[in-house]
Write a structure and sequence with these properties.
TIM Barrel; 2 domains; 17 helices; alpha/beta; about 500 residues; binds zinc ion; 20 strands
């Protein structure tokens, strides 16, 4: 029994004092203090005096597809209160397409932060089975990545799909839904998914709608001035009766004004279609370095970029220099062949920083990840002030032992930092909790909230002190002010420390 806490049940209303009773993996009673039975329960009592009891946080946009298998203790997520992760975002999944595992690994290199992990599966069903059989601290659900599905049928070709290829793509998506994914994701800035145009996008939307799934979309262009056009491209392929469209990590890139116009436009579209968004509370994005190059240059993928770098390094350096950022604003996050560069910003480069980036691209075969300070805090706060925008991390499952890449602090602190920022800007406790738990869960068709009969995924924290501690310099720092986290009724964090328990399960769409 979680006793005497302030229960924020996930429905957004004012929290109330009371007890939450758990038996096995299930919440069996929610008892307001005003009606607490005098006899009490024969239960282990967890004193929650002065603490908020909330539903476990649900991260519907993360990239733990592979790293969860490498780090099943998942410290980066449980220490910020996340109890369920939805993987398979931005069009990238380690299946389908893994018949050519090496080729697919290059396509999804930005989410492949655990190079030593063996890919043992075949197809989406096999990958989901691997997630299912791995006992993990958190629950996990998955999307199928459109980019990976496209890779399965057409490789890295940038050409429009032919009729037979569209049919094959549809079959890949259908198979993924049969295996139990909760939706499909698009990554319209990444090769080869970015080569999809209207007909192909409409096909994806149609399949997702037929399965009552969610279409989770990394837009084609996040520059503030391009947001409206990028949103319309997707709004045009969803119907009023589906699928649900989730605009992923909504932000304005490039520091231009006009983010409010994009929000207003979404607000208008929401009147006739089921569209919502998620956001993370940081101004640094994290993406592949080749994203800083013009689309025409990067569309053919990292190999083509490397060839261009070798043929004419000065021109590529010029492109990078004119992307709109200063050397201080770019941090190297992943560069497997040049580990000494990881964690540096460009002021750490020897000689011309842009030319140094070109060399890094060549040495790493085009696969370099960067964090870029590309957003405005005022945009972040406008997003957080919007009641249909929930928190999502865009981060990944990690443990403190992780060394293969630098971690964006969002992997360890998006939810605690998001809660703190919401509270600092006057969002009431109940509404802030809703935006971290039931609101995102509903987007992926998942049941959540502190209700008798629901799975006992719960978080106990101090409203006054709960906050992130992770920084770029020290990303692997657990959040502060978090007391207990329960996944399926078992403590994964107890008295502020990970317990090493792994009660998480794979949540398949058809089980719900
Ligand atoms: Zn993305």
């Amino acid at each position: 029994m979680l006793r005497g806490g302030l229960i924020a049940d996930g429905h957004g209303g004012d929290p109330f004092l009371g007890d939450v009773v758990i038996a096995g993996a299930t919440i069996t009673a929610v008892v307001p203090a005003s009606v607490r039975p005098s006899g009490g329960y024969d239960a282990e009592i967890i004193d929650c005096t002065g603490r908020v009891i909330a539903p476990g946080f649900v991260d519907i946009h993360c990239h733990s597809d592979l790293s969860l298998l490498a780090y099943p203790d998942n410290e980066s997520r449980i220490t910020q209160g996340i109890t369920t992760e939805v993987v398979g975002n931005c069009g990238m999944t380690p299946a389908p397409g893994n018949a050519d595992a090496e080729g697919l690994a290059r396509v999804i290199s930005t989410i492949d932060v655990t190079p030593d992990l063996e890919w043992t599966w075949s197809g989406v069903a096999g990958w989901l089975q691997a997630l299912d059989e791995c006992s993990t601290a958190t629950n996990v659900a998955a999307h199928v990545g459109h980019g990976s599905a496209r890779f399965a049928v057409a490789g890295t070709s940038a050409a429009p799909l032919e009729r037979s290829q569209l049919t094959a793509l549809e079959r890949e998506l259908e198979e993924a839904f049969s295996a139990g994914v909760v939706g499909a994701s698009l990554g319209l800035m990444y090769s080869p998914g970015e080569s999809a145009r209207t007909e192909e996008l409409a096909l994806v939307a149609r399949v997702v709608a037929a399965h009552d799934g969610v279409l989770s979309a990394h837009l084609r262009d996040y520059r503030t001035s391009a947001l409206r056009r990028s949103i319309d491209e997707l709004a045009d392929v969803v119907e009023s009766d589906g699928p649900r469209l989730q605009v992923s990590h909504l932000r304005g890139v490039g520091g231009e004004p006009g983010f409010a116009d994009a929000l207003a436009h979404l607000e208008t579209l929401r009147k006739s279609k089921d569209i919502a968004a998620d956001a993370y509370p940081y101004v640094h994005g994290h993406t592949t370095l080749i994203q800083l190059l013009p689309p025409a240059l990067r569309a053919a993928g990292p190999d083509a970029v490397v060839s261009a770098c070798m043929a004419d390094p000065a021109t590529i350096a010029e492109h990078l220099a004119s992307a709109g950022y200063t050397p201080e604003q770019i941090i190297i996050m992943k560069a497997a062949k040049t580990p000494d560069a990881v964690g540096l910003d460009l002021t750490g480069a020897e000689g011309d920083p842009w030319r140094w980036l070109v060399d890094l691209l060549v040495e790493n075969q085009g696969m370099v990840d960067v964090a870029v300070e590309s957003g405005l805090w005022s945009d972040v706060d406008q997003a957080l002030a919007t009641d249909w925008i929930s928190i999502a991390s865009d981060g990944t499952a990690l443990n403190r032992t992780h060394r293969a890449s630098a971690a964006h602090p969002r992997s360890w602190g998006a939810f605690s930092a998001g809660y703190r920022r919401l509270r600092q800007h006057g969002t009431p406790v109940g509404e802030a909790v809703r935006r971290l738990s039931t609101a995102p869960a509903a987007r992926v068709g998942m049941i959540s909230g502190i209700v008798s009969g629901h799975r006992a995924d719960l978080v106990v924290f101090d409203d006054h002190t709960f906050d992130a501690a992770a920084t770029f310099a020290e990303p692997a720092r657990p959040s502060v002010g978090l007391d207990h986290v329960y996944v399926n009724g078992t403590a994964v964090v107890g008295a502020g420390r990970p317990t090493a328990a792994r009660p998480g399960t794979l949540i398949r769409r058809r089980q719900q």
